[in-house]
Amino acid sequence: MAHQQHEELIQALHECMTACNHCYDACLQENDLNMMANCVRLDRECADICSYVEQALTRGTPFVSELTALCATICEACGEECKKHEHDHCQKCAEACFKCAEVCRTA
């Protein structure tokens, strides 16, 4: 099965998507939404691409290298934005994003 050879990547993608979704929701609860706007935007972009790539891998996509390259770029952008914020959810999201980007780059 195609998804078994990408097990570590699929797990990293799922963990990143989950962290981004949590960060997205938590950011919307913060007092200064204007300050969090870019974080919220990138959380959505990152969660969506991670979810898509996870699904594509499980169905044996022939575009693994192209999708993982794009995903790594978006994960890094999200991680860079999240690490600017002191909130625990942002820091955890940044960590998940950087881990996912690293795994994507080695896929």
Automatic annotation (TrEMBL):
Superkingdom of origin: Bacteria
InterPro entries, A to Z: Csp_YhjQ (IPR005560), YHJQ-like (IPR044543)
Lineage of producing organism: Bacteria, Bacillati, Bacillota, Bacilli, Bacillales
Transmembrane domains' residue ranges: none
Name of this chain's protein: Four-helix bundle copper-binding protein
Pfam families per record: Csp
UniProt source species: Virgibacillus dokdonensis
